[in-house]
Design brief:
It is a single chain. The two termini are 32 Å apart. The protein is built from 22 helices and 25 strands. By secondary structure, the chain is an alpha/beta fold. Strands 7, 8, 9, 10, 11, 12 and 13 form a 7-stranded mixed sheet that branches. The structure holds one RNA strand.
Length: 779
RNA sequence: GGGCCAGUGGUCUAGCCUGGUCAUGACGUCGCUCUUACACAGCGAAAGUCGGCGGUUCGAAUCCGCCCUGGCCCA
């Protein structure tokens, strides 16, 4: 007796509304809980980027990346790993401070610190809730229950702990050095926080009198306000114009100090007059020469961006005002021979877009230069996906010339745990294991170790945010919190991140974790491309070319968005976001849905003794698909499985196999055993495709799986094994070409597909002739 | 100035490492078709100097050199 076919899937397309129900189900089932070495499976630990709540809407490219990371985690589970997939939120740093200053029209330095911090917290909480909700809507399978925040007491305690260990290892030092400084943000910047922009500025050519002669030297500069800090004028050694001036002295106009003229190869003969004044500090070139030639620095600009006493009557003016004032005076005194406007590549603060200044300041530094050779080795040993992006890290390591300045003058960040003796200024660093706020807390020290004084002053500075983020791999593996857990999970298996923060997050993570644990923090680095707008431009909030991802998710569902994210661009390449293409991904889901709906009509029989040639053929195609998908997943590449599965489903399985076996599947033709062979094979292929797709489109695959193959979730299953079926590629090709030829002939002859046709089945395809005859109505 | 990446039908993309089938697929366009899963479909068609120039080779989208354009990063 044959069971009546029962349609198990309603409607002719996938309803994204079902996603919400599934997510609720997953939450109650709690399938993804991590315990080290559970069921004797190997651990797989992700070090994921905690997103920064910087505003609404969230960058759609970032959201795409989070969905891709989820696919990495889900595929690892289905490859048989026990997966630790942490969810964190990065809440330290400048952006929230700037947003808070703008929102409440207040200034950080003029607001009580406690109050300011509270305002920042509220802003972060608000956006954080929005982001977590979006992540959940995407179907992210991370550990939301144990989500962490980088501004929590527990996290900051660990950041301070890492600092204290580095301090004790004598890897931290204080130095008074020229520092890249943003006068607007009021803080020192790391190299990574600087960006460049072409901006108009004046190039002023001034007469410098040559000492004890009537000669003059013309010197062009973009920084006339720094004349008082000029200590040297350089010319190129091969510059014939100035050969006889080298070694003599010139007099700085307006200020009258005498400075030598020297030959130096870094002078550009073609820029300005070829003679360059070297001041402390106009740009990096100045810094380099001051260091190289051991010149005496004159601090001309203070940390508020105002001219210092060294600037004489210009003291107290802003750099900008001083510049225009001084240009005017130089012109009036006929010292300036030329004032022209030029486009100048100006270094800017990445956050405030203010031109940076170089000011000598006392800052804390973490040693890195002496470890660069070791870091280069670690970078070489690390497995990059794709391999090409290792280059970005190598280039960065090769370009570093100073140690890492780790202190900042901000509020919403982890405090540097130091107290200074009020008398002798000796720094005291407390014991690790607590969260310290020296600007607020009482000193844990009773007596200065140096002078015995009993009063202390707490440090007010904070850490650069990368000091926090760089230990994410240590935090999620419970370093200094749970030794057994840490042993089992560190180093992490994989760091997943965008290519834009390789030189910051990835590099600083390697540096700090290496210094603390002597190991690289992770084995693999997965580097995603960046989301661009539809015309290929970087999507930036400042450019206003943002697309709100939420309506897209609402309209097409998370699975369509995810499938688009997986299949849009190859691993590591930038991708463009457009609604059309997400919609196109949705069509694939419809195709999958209808294929499943068709197959669900048939009962799933046991494997018959023998299968037909047609069944063997599609199983061989499936075997190679499984192999390709597995290779893709092992390389953490989602592009490979998503595009291969789409091609197989659409162009091979649905177009050819299903059409060929329809007759048998319905039981219209052939023996009962052949019918079961078709049904068995249809279900086997369906199951395999669902399993292969489950990491990419977790909702639709789970829904179909539960409906057709039992009530349990697909997400606790493993990937299918590639079978032993073998059919020559040429035969496969020939089979599909024959079908196409029949279709073409029918249309040329004006025949409907159901009309019969006289056509010879090629000899090589004899094994398929029963199915082909039924399919094409060959008479 | 340097580095990395990219440049393939109207749009996007595979192939390039490991040279050799009429260059893959998707979106879009046009025509036909309701064919016991799917019209969010099926079938078919039009559409390409594989950025340019030169070289290696019997043969180059693929290897080499130079150049142009765009993106990202660095100095």
């Amino acid at each position: 007796m044959e069971a009546q076919p029962v349609p198990k899937l309603e409607g002719t397309n996938w309803n994204p509304g079902l996603e919400e129900e599934l997510r609720k189900l997953w939450e109650t089932e709690n399938n993804y809980r991590f315990e080290p070495n559970k069921d004797k499976k190997p651990n797989f630990v992700l070090d994921t980027p905690p997103p920064y709540p910087s505003g609404k809407p969230w960058h759609p490219g970032a959201l795409t990346q989070y969905s891709q990371i989820d696919m990495v985690a889900r595929s690892a589970r289905m490859r048989g790993y026990n997966v630790l997939y942490p969810v964190g939120i990065d809440r330290n740093g400048l952006p929230v401070e700037i947003a808070t200053e703008r929102k409440y029209r207040i200034q950080l330095r003029k607001t009580p610190r406690d109050e300011f911090i509270t305002l920042c917290k509220h802003a972060l909480d608000d956006i954080e809730a929005y982001m977590l909700e979006l992540l959940k809507k995407l179907g992210i399978s991370g550990d939301f229950e144990n989500k962490y925040r980088t501004d929590s007491e527990e996290y900051r305690k660990l950041t301070q702990w890492s600092f204290i260990e580095l301090w004790e290892k004598k890897l931290i030092y204080i130095a008074n050095r020229p520092n890249v400084y943003c006068t607007d943000c009021g803080t020192a910047l790391a190299d990574a926080e600087i960006e460049y922009e072409e901006r108009p500025t004046y190039l002023v050519t001034n007469r410098f009198k040559v000492k004890a002669s009537d000669e003059e030297l013309l010197v062009a500069t973009t920084r006339p306000e720094l004349l008082e800090a000029c200590q040297l004028v350089i010319v190129h050694p091969e510059d014939e114009r100035y050969k006889d001036l080298v070694g003599r002295k010139v007099i700085v106009p307006l200020f009258g100090n005498e400075v030598p003229v020297a030959a130096h190869p870094s002078a550009d003969m073609s820029f300005g007059t070829g003679a360059v004044m070297i001041c402390s500090y106009g740009d990096y070139h100045d810094v380099q020469l001051f260091r190289e030639l051991r010149l005496r620095e004159i601090v001309a600009i203070d940390s508020d961006g105002k001219m210092t006493a060294a600037a004489g009557k210009y003291a107290g003016m802003t750099v900008k005002d001083a510049r225009s004032q001084i240009i005017q005076e130089l012109q009036e005194a006929k010292i300036a021979t030329k004032v022209e406007q030029i486009q100048h590549r100006t270094p800017l603060c990445e956050r405030s877009h203010t031109p940076i200044e170089i000011i000598p300041m006392q800052e804390y530094y973490l040693k890195q230069l002496e470890f660069l050779p070791k870091l280069r080795k670690l970078a070489k040993a690390m497995e990059f996906h794709p391999d090409m992006h290792r280059q970005i890290l190598s280039n960065w390591i090769d370009s570093l010339t100073t140690d890492y300045p780790i202190s900042r003058n901000r509020y919403y960040a982890t405090e540097i745990p130091i107290w200074y003796c009020s008398k002798c200024n000796e720094p005291h660093v407390p014991k690790p294991g607590r969260y310290y706020r020296p600007w607020k807390d009482e000193s844990p020290f009773k007596k200065c170790v140096k002078c015995g004084n009993q009063k202390f002053i707490g440090e007010t500075k904070t850490f650069d945010t990368w000091m926090d983020s760089s230990i994410s791999a240590l935090f999620v593996t419970k370093w200094n919190r749970d030794q057994a857990f840490h042993q089992a999970t560190y180093p992490a298996s994989i760091r997943t991140q965008g290519k834009d923060i390789i030189r910051t997050w990835l590099y600083y993570s390697m540096l700090k974790c290496y210094l603390l644990t002597e190991k690289a923090p992770f084995e693999h680095a997965w580097i995603g491309g960046l989301g661009q707008d539809a015309s290929g431009r970087a999507m930036r909030k400042s450019l206003g070319n943002f697309m709100d991802p939420e309506p897209l998710l609402q309209k097409y569902g998370a699975d369509a968005f995810r499938f688009w994210g997986a299949s849009e661009a190859n691993l590591g390449y930038d991708f463009r976001l457009s609604e059309d293409r997400v919609a196109g991904a949705g069509k694939f889901l419809t195709k999958l849905w209808n294929t499943a709906r068709f197959i669900g009509n048939f009962p799933e029989p046991k494997r018959p003794e023998t299968l037909t040639q047609t069944d063997e053929w599609i199983l061989a195609e499936l075997a190679s698909l499984i192999k390709e998908c597995k290779e893709g997943y092992e390389d953490f590449n989602l592009f490979v499985p998503s595009t291969k599965i789409r091609e197989f489903l659409w162009n091979v399985f649905a177009a050819h196999y299903i059409e060929m076996v329809k007759g048998r599947a319905y039981g219209d033709v052939g023996r009962g055993e052949d019918r079961d062979a078709a049904r068995y094979t249809l279900h086997l292929i369906m199951k395999s495709m669902l399993l292969l797709l489950a990491p990419i489109t977790p909702h639709i695959t789970d829904h179909i799986w539960r409906r057709l193959y039992g009530s349990k979730t697909i997400h606790l299953e493993s990937f299918p094994e590639a079978g032993q079926h073998k059919v020559a590629k040429a035969e496969s090709q020939e089979l599909m070409e024959f079908n196409i030829e029949v279709w073409k002939t029918k249309r040329e002859k004006g025949l409907a597909l159901k009309d019969s046709i006289k056509i010879e089945v090629p000899k090589k395809l004899k094994g398929y002739s029963a199915d082909l005859t039924r399919m094409h109505h060959i008479s």
